[in-house]
Amino acid sequence: MATILKGKDILDVKDLKLEHLSLIMETAARFEAVMAAGGRLTNMAGKVLATLFFEPSIQTRLTFETAMLKMDGHVVSVMDANSTSSSVKGETLYDTGKMIDGYADLAVIRHARVGSSLELAEGAGVPVINGGDGSGQHPTQALMDLMTIQKERGRLNNLTVTIAGDLKNSRTAHSLAWLLGKYGPRFYFVSPPEIGMPGDITSALRNDFIDVVETTDLVEAAKKSDVLYMTRIQKERFTDENLYNRLKGTYVVNTRLIEQSKPGITIMHPLPRVDEIDREVDDYEGAAYFRQAANGVPIRMAVIALITGNE
User: Fold this and answer.
1) Which of 151, 181, 276, 286 has the smallest CB count inside 10 Å?
2) For 174, how many CA atoms within 13 A lie in the half-sphere containing its CB?
3) Residue 81 confidence class, pLDDT cut points 50, 70, 90
4) What is the pTM of this model?
5) CA–CA distance, 162 with 77 (Å, rounded to integer)
6) In Å, how far are 67, 171, 246, 304 from 294, measured between CA atoms?
7) Which of 1-5, 124-128, 218-222, 265-269 has the lowest mean pLDDT?
């Protein structure tokens, strides 16, 4: 069972089966328990992770690097790769992947272009992880989101989940919808019409008999939801600045919204937040977004160890 992910790339959540999800989360929970007890993991001793970030990142880059270091591995990192890498000279991601084979045991890439991780993986002989490709997907974020929901709610099945904000451009929202859909939730997708969830996702979910409600009313959705997953309006994805200015600040989670929501609702956010969650909400017991961020370390430890066969 532990070898079912060995040698695999993690590029698209649609490639992950329930058995993969269970294995990753079980491995992450085991690693987390070892660390909590003061133990030491050496799974990746002598191994090297290459991180290629063509887009800005704090949480994703740091959690991947922390995950590798906590397993006694090493990291070679390229930050602001658009200006510091050979891509400036015209090197393709395929060729970059070929080159990585000479000095790393796996790689993670973040890039503004959908499909970029696949191009890197086609060149690389080592496993590649998609750390976010434009408005496409972010598989390991969705995995840590699943882990968070499991820990906060005690289960993944039979939940009502609202995903709100910029659903058109949010790769975290896309990935979570695909993965959580495997557990039979009821979804509320809350957004302005201009930035709604892509039709291929809503259609696929409905074809799998998942109940999907698309609405602009956050309050009504929150009244019925066990989990509220907020996303920011992604300025960098807009070509029309006037549209962005009109839509920013459409939805804000504050104490008043919490009071109107289903009692005990869990509030999540992939971070960074801009103005969509007031800091006053941080004191709410169900505000899980910083715990969610911390879950990125054990999840990424598990993914790294499993795809390299060092579990």
Assistant:
1) 151
2) 24
3) low
4) 0.92
5) 35
6) 11, 19, 33, 16
7) 1-5
CA atoms within 13 A on the CB side of 224: 15
Quote the CA–CA distance of 102 and 100 in Å, as a whole number.
5
Judged against a pLDDT cut of 80, whether residue 1 lies above it is answered with: no
The answer to whether 230 and 276 have CB atoms below 8 angstroms apart is yes
* CA 275/CA 280 separation, integer angstroms: 12
**Alpha-carbon gap, residue 99 to 102, rounded angstroms:** 6
Contact between 74 and 68 (Cβ < 8 Å): yes
Go through the chain and tell me how many residues it has.
311
Give ranges for CATH 3.40.50.1370 in the chain.
13-137+296-307, 139-293
Angstrom CA distances, 242 to 100, 235, 245, 246, stand at 41, 11, 5, 6
Neighbours of 289 (CB within 10 A): 20
List beta partners, residue 128: 107
How many CB atoms lie under 10 A from the CB of residue 48?
17
Give the span between the Cα atoms of 110 and 136, in whole angstroms. Answer: 11
Q: What is the DSSP letter of 236?
A: G
pLDDT at residue number 88: 44
What fold is seen in the domain 139-293?
Rossmann fold (3.40.50)
How far, in Å, CA of 146 to CA of 23, rounded? Answer: 13
Q: Classify each residue of 160-188 as buried b or exposed e, where b means 16 or more C-beta atoms within 10 Å of its C-beta.
A: bbbbbbbbbbbbbbbbbbbbbbbbebbbb
CATH of 13-137+296-307, one of 3.50.50.60, 1.20.210.10, 3.40.50.1370, 3.20.20.60: 3.40.50.1370
Closest CA to 226 of 191, 180, 282: 180
